Amino acid sequence: MKQSSRSKLYTRSGDAGQTSLFGGGCVSKDHPSIEAYGSVDELNAALGVAVAFLRQRRLTKALQEIQNELFNIGSELTSETGGRAAVVGHLFLEPEAKIVALERLIDQYDAKVEPLRTFILPSGTPAGTLLHLCRTVCRRAERAVVRLSREEPVNPAIVAYLNRLSDLLFALARYVNKAAGKPEIPWSKG
Predict the structure, then answer these.
(1) Residues 99-134: pLDDT tens digits?
(2) Residue 120: beta bridge partners?
(3) Which of 118, 35, 108 is nearest to 78 (CA)?
(4) Residue 141 and residue 64: Cα distance in Å, rounded?
């Protein structure tokens, strides 16, 4: 019987609690760079779930482009020596233009909903609620990157990108709910 040339999914190299960095080197799996990368990876997966519930092709395409960008950001966060390996590998290119693109999307979708007069509960349609959840995961990822930046050099555009992305996810959650005719639930002080 011929053996497959396919490599195995498991390597056993992380069994002792260490993981490899992009470009070389090794750190503990609880290192702040791995925490930051893991939070960005979780955001990417959460976006994938939200996309599965979306019916608007334009939004799906925009969010899938963001998912690709999150892989680039994750690669930079798990790079040896403060992200230089990812920069050399040209993975997170033109971040300023990408931040401006997020701002354009925020303005576009925020203009389609009523201005907020109070806080709202994260709720609505399955897609809208998942986008609210993605926003909170994005905020956690942003906090993890800020924590990492206190210990080693981090591209400051990553923090700005995640900050803007969380705003976009909020705007999209509101838009998706409105487009489906689902009213927002205002926060009640009690």
Answers:
(1) 999 999 999 999 999 999 999 999 999 999 999 999
(2) 186
(3) 35
(4) 18
* Integer-rounded Cα radius of gyration of the chain: 19
- Cα 73 from Cα 161, distance rounded (Å): 10
DSSP 186: B
Least Cα distance to 156 among 92, 79, 89 occurs for 92
Is 146 a residue whose pLDDT tops 80? yes
| Amino acid identity, position 16 | A
d(CA 177, CA 128): 5
| Amino acid in the structure at residue 25 | G
d(CA 31, CA 19): 10
First to last CA, the chain: 70
Question: To which residue do tokens 């396919």 refer?
Answer: 6
Complete domains list, the chain, with CATH: 21-29+49-179 (1.20.1200.10)
Q: CA 46 → CA 97, 105, 161, distances in Å?
A: 24, 19, 17
Neighbours of 1 (CB within 10 A): 3
How much is the pTM?
Answer: 0.87
